[in-house]
What we know:
3 strands; 7% strand; single chain; three-stranded antiparallel beta sheet; 71% helix; mainly alpha
Amino acid sequence: MNPHPYLRAYMAGIVAPTLFLLVAITGFCVARYGFAVPIPIERVIVFPMAIVPNLFGLWNVFYLWLGPRRHLPIGLHGAVLPFVVAPLGATIATLLGFLAFGAHGLIWFEALMIPYTLVATALGFAVVVYYLVWKHLVGFFNEVLGIA
Length: 148
């Protein structure tokens, strides 16, 4: 008996990023209002708060839907997600006008140039973090909810 497995998969997927974002938004608020950091953080945090937990949940539903057809363990399945999140985030940031692509790097808020080597390193780091989060946290929540 397994009622509503996709709903439970969605809920198991959104737990980890939602908890992380609560900590992140607290840090952003302290930086913005406590230390008067001049970057409009509220424009930056909207994407992660709105999209990332939903993508985690939908990605977990997709993992469950694959069922016997899946060939990747849950950690590797989660490690693919940054390759969806990064282009989506870059596209939205570019459309909103606070990210531009320059000759040698990304230009953030028309003030900060981030070299492409640093972007590639950050993407590699994100893949490792996503792998660990999916293997240990999302996999654990899937087992707790009986959908693993």
